[in-house]
């Protein structure tokens, strides 16, 4: 959908007024598009096209939502309201070693685009063991988010077991949370609680995205709680004898678990838009057990 499609003119007057009022108040076009998509009435693409058109109408001196929209110039010649970079978590890889407040971390591997970084020595052996022991036997079959209604459902593509550590529940998790926040320059409050995944032999998580799809009704309910998942940390809590790598099929990349290491990747571009290059999965474990902890960094405060 392009700004030349006259989407704005086809919206009901209430929506056109809402867009013009919010633009006049200097609201973020991306937040506005997310709100429109969350209403369930418009896809993200339609919302973005309508807002882009409204921005151009305002730039042309037309601020009346009720007036018919004039023909617009071809999209290729117009700047989009969505092109401004926004705050992103980031890892400083200017040195081979990151000095976090309570630990020195090794930078082992950096892929620039999409950004994938492997960090060593993020957790001590004792911290890995303490996290695993804390979750003990609380695992249940892993689920995924249903596209239709956002429910947590069992899926044949994810055969592992999962457990959560809620905020404030364990001192070791709080400490690691603060460390990851310092490494990623992102508030710990803007992140989901740790989600552990345990894979036995043959268990896997087939390739998928971590970002939430604004065009999926089920994902929109999750977007409403903390916004997009901007970045992922996968913490490797044990070594695995064979298999169980984290794979990125589009990048030809496989990272093998090493106790205490962490894999980081950005799920979106700098405008917080989902990056399709970030398709990834957990390859089947061939022998041994794999235990990881996921930490997803959100746009906004979570929970
Ligand atoms: O198991 C892995 O290495 C990746 C896990 C993953 O992608 C997930 O749980 O979302």
Describe this structure in words.
α2 packs across α4 (44-59). This protein has helices at 7-10, 13-24, 29-38, 44-59, 125-135, 171-184, 217-223, and strands at 97-100, 103-111, 116-120, 140-141, 144-145, 152-153, 161-165, 194-199, 205-208, 229-236, 242-243, 246-248, 253-255, 262-266, 280-282, 285-287, 290-298. The chain has two domains: 7-77, no CATH class; 97-298, q2cbj1_9rhob like domain (Jelly Rolls). The chain is an alpha+beta fold. The strands form four sheets. A nine-stranded antiparallel β-sheet has the order 1-2-3-14-10-17-8-7-4. It has seven helices and 17 strands. Bound molecules: 2-oxoglutaric acid (AKG). 2-oxoglutaric acid binds at residues 197, 205, 210, 234, 246, 280-282, 292, 294. 2-oxoglutaric acid binds next to β15 and β17.
How many DSSP helices?
Answer: 7
The outline comes out as elongated
Strand content is 15-25%
> What is the CATH superfamily label of the largest domain?
q2cbj1_9rhob like domain
Radius of gyration: 22 Å
* Main pleated sheet: 9 strands, antiparallel
Unreliable runs: 68-77
CATH architecture of the largest domain: Sandwich
CATH-defined fold name of the largest domain: Jelly Rolls
Look at the structure and give the mean pLDDT. Answer: 91
């Amino acid at each position: 959908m392009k700004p030349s499609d006259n989407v704005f003119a086809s919206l009901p007057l209430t929506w056109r007024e809402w867009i013009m009022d919010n633009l006049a108040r200097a609201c973020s076009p991306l937040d506005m598009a997310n709100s429109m998509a969350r209403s369930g009435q418009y896809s993200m693409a339609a919302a973005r096209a309508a807002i882009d058109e409204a921005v151009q109408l305002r730039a042309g001196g037309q601020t009346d939502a009720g007036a018919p929209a004039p023909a617009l110039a071809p999209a290729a010649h117009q700047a989009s309201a969505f092109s401004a970079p926004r705050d992103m978590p980031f890892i400083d890889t200017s040195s081979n070693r990151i000095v976090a407040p309570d630990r020195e971390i090794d930078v082992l591997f950096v892929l620039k685009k999409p950004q994938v970084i492997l960090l060593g020595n993020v957790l001590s052996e004792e911290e890995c063991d303490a996290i695993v022991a804390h979750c003990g036997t609380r695992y249940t079959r892993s689920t995924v988010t249903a596209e239709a209604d956002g429910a947590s459902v069992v899926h044949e593509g994810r055969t592992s077991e999962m457990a959560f550590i809620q905020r404030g529940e364990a001192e070791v998790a709080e400490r690691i949370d603060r460390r990851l926040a310092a490494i990623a320059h992102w508030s710990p409050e803007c992140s989901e609680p740790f989600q552990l995944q345990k894979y036995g032999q043959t268990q896997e998580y087939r390739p998928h995205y971590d970002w939430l799809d604004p065009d999926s009704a089920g994902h929109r309910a999750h977007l409403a709680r903390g916004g997009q998942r901007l970045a992922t940390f996968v913490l490797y809590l044990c070594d695995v004898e064979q298999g169980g790598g984290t794979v990125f099929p589009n990048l030809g990349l496989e990272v093998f678990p090493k106790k205490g290491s962490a894999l980081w990747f950005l799920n979106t571009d700098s405008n917080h838009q989902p990056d399709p290059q970030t398709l990834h999965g957990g390859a089947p474990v061939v022998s041994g057990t794999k235990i990881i902890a996921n930490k997803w960094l959100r746009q906004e405060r979570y929970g």
